[in-house]
Amino acid sequence: MPLTKAIIVPGNGAGDVERSNWYGWAKKQINKIPDMTCLLSNMPDPVTARESIWLPFIQEELQCDEETVIIGHSSGAAAAMRYAETHNVFGLILVGAYTSDLGDENERESGYFSRPWEWEQMRRNVGHIVQFGSTDDPFLPWEEQQAVAEGLGAVLHKYTDRGHFQNTQFPELIDAVRKLRAAA
């Protein structure tokens, strides 16, 4: 299957996603890649980011399929991973991914962390997995980011100075999309 679409699933609490972090900038850059479309939408239930609401939205509204790479940031990475447990997708690009509710009530309410991760099933359903993580992330312990990389066999881009990847541009992400497109 070719790679024809990217969807950006933001972290929770992002507000207007076009103007939050690198999301709007990345959408514009990906849309410049020939034969690629990038979708970015304000998510329903943007604060709690419930799995029961976000996963159907990814399927029905964003129409994620086998020609799609899901770019998930933070809570969006958790949503992307849970989606990939039950759906075939071209690829995942996970930014600031983690494995637990971090002791946070809001994260617990999201539903993503109520059961074990199905790493093997995700690997079967996804053709390409790339991950970006930073050891200085103020929200996510490196051990959890590393556990995601190991569980998925992801191509891990490890940084020491990116925090939670809340900058306004993210050129390495665009490079990763271009490489996936070329590999298709």
TrEMBL record:
Lineage, highest ranks first: Eukaryota, Metazoa, Chordata, Craniata, Vertebrata
Superkingdom assignment: Eukaryota
UniProt-listed Pfam families: Ser_hydrolase
Organism: Salvelinus namaycush (Lake trout)
Keywords: Hydrolase
UniProt-recorded Gene Ontology molecular function terms: hydrolase activity
Keyword Hydrolase found: yes
InterPro entries: AB_hydrolase_fold (IPR029058), RBBP9/YdeN (IPR010662)
PANTHER family: SERINE HYDROLASE RBBP9
Name under which the protein is recorded: Serine hydrolase RBBP9
Keyword field contains Hydrolase: yes
